[in-house]
Amino acid sequence: MHQRIQATFVATAITLLLLALPCAAQISLVQDGEARAAIVIANTPTDTARYAAEELAQHVERATGIALEIVAESEAPLELHTRVYIGDTETGQRNGIDTVRLPREAYIMRSVGNDLFIAGREGNGDPLSESNPNAGTLFGVYEFLEHFLGVRWLWPGELGTYAPKTDTVELWAVNDMRAPALAFRGLYLSRIQSVINGGTISQEDARLGFSPEGAAAYGKALKILLRRHRMGGVDIKPPSGHLFYGWWKRYGKEHPEWFALRKDGTRGHPDPNYNNTPMCVSNEALQDFVIAQWDGESVLLLGPVDRPGRCICDNCRAWDGPQPENPPWFATYVYGADPRSQELFGGATSDRYARFWKVMREKAAKRNPHAIVSASFIYENELPAPVLKINLGKNIYGEFVQWQDPHLRYFPMPDEAVEWLKAQWLGWRKTGIRLGYRPNYLHDGYVMPHFETKQEGGFFKFAYEHGMEGARFDSLTGQWAAQGPRLYPLVA
Ligand SMILES: [Zn+2]
User: C or N terminus of the chain, fewer CB within 10 Å?
Assistant: First the structure.
């Protein structure tokens, strides 16, 4: 079958006209099953440029059966119709492909005569690392493969890679420059992360059928897949985490007053080893201790413990805003009905914590005026937007996690719950805080296909349109058979 892939960024009418004419395309990689181009990289290419060239060659071969040669710039074959320059090259520089001033992870894709240039800002670094900002060249190649060859990466490995068969890959003039729309993009990888980091598979996972070799191969394929979907920016994502986890065990004996007052009049938790004991955040000695422990340079982490329920002391309660008289039926846990918060204050403590973060930022600024505070997670008792007016500003960062009430955790949820969540996002945004999105909802649907895209896609788009800096999902659990159809639109 003779199929032509032709595309252009010129107006549609011109494209249609050109498609109707039997003249030669400007850029020709493969024509009627014959190689018409070589892939050209610098004489001393970066790892990223080399890897990007290999990715291009591999996918063109998969689609056409033709293996294009990868050559060094000094040996670029001038007799061929087209040269596809990948990464920073002298020829590119001579032709005005200026990568130095490009934003991080951005690329230029531009035709000059019959040649094509795909290049981003380059540097040392592992092309597969999501913390490597010099990935523009690689991302440009992926854009090319998706746009001009129709390649799709559905799940990890060969079987999930789809490249439509063709005997011709040609296109007209192209001139594009693009950077990722979100500063950071990612999925936490759950238990396979330790294997990717060089660890071994857990006994439990091994019992489920993963051999150590199989787990390592899966981890590698997963990294490749996620990079093909342009996951990255992890190096500029402010950290988040449960700072106060384990503090009761460490400091509870000496400083019980730093910990939450309970309804029975005691501080902390009956179990001296209980790790998720909440703090008494209005306690100034605690605040000063946190500042004294901080190195003065890195992001100051302030994430609460991973359990609902907060301190009931008068000082903390004085920082809280008014509670709703009639909480929405789908958010009763958030406002106090969560069984896990019954010994503590279970209502909304967003105003209390917003004030805590602001106070801590002011204290931190005395040591370092550029200090960034990470509130970590905006969820559980802090999920509702603050009621009282407060300006948090751009030195405080938080990650929105829809959680707590069963109706707020997973999609699909009642439409009015989605609308409520959007209102909380907007309310937090009004404080001026920097917002990331860190949903937990991929923890559902392990065994049964659980297929919802409309609400989750809608909320993601809403967040993007209302100040979301980036998103990192918790977690990719690896249940591709059950979750694949929904993961694809999410990462693509
Ligand atoms: Zn307190």
Answer: N
Spacing, Cα 47 to ligand 1 middle (Å): 53
Distance (Å) from CA 314 to ligand 1 centroid: 7
**Can you read off the two tokens belonging to residue 313?**
């002391």
Final residue of a structural domain among 133, 156, 177: 177
Q: How far is the CA of 359 from the centre of ligand 1 (A)?
A: 15
Q: Tell me, what CATH number does 97's domain have? A: 3.30.379.10
97: in domain: yes
Separation of CA 310 and ligand 1 centre (Å): 8
Q: Are residues 21 and 162 in the same domain?
A: yes
Ligand 1 centre to CA of 300 (Å) is 21
Is residue 12 over pLDDT 80?
no
Q: Is the pTM of the predicted complex or chain greater than 0.90?
A: yes
Residue 425 Cα to ligand 1 midpoint, Å, equals 26
Tell which of 144, 177, 210 closes a domain: 177
Same domain, residue pair 344 and 256 = yes
The alpha carbon of 423 and the centre of ligand 1 are apart by a number of angstroms equal to: 28
Report CA(323)–ligand 1 centroid distance (Å). 17
Rounded to the nearest whole angstrom, what is the distance from the C-alpha of residue 440 to the centroid of ligand 1? 28
**318 alpha carbon to ligand 1 midpoint, in Å?**
9
Q: Assess if residue 220 is contained within a domain.
A: no
Q: For the chain, give the mean pLDDT.
A: 92
| pLDDT confidence of residue 24 | 63
CA of 258 to the centre of ligand 1 (A): 8
Q: What is the mean pLDDT of residues 270-297?
A: 98
**How many domains would you assign to the chain?**
2
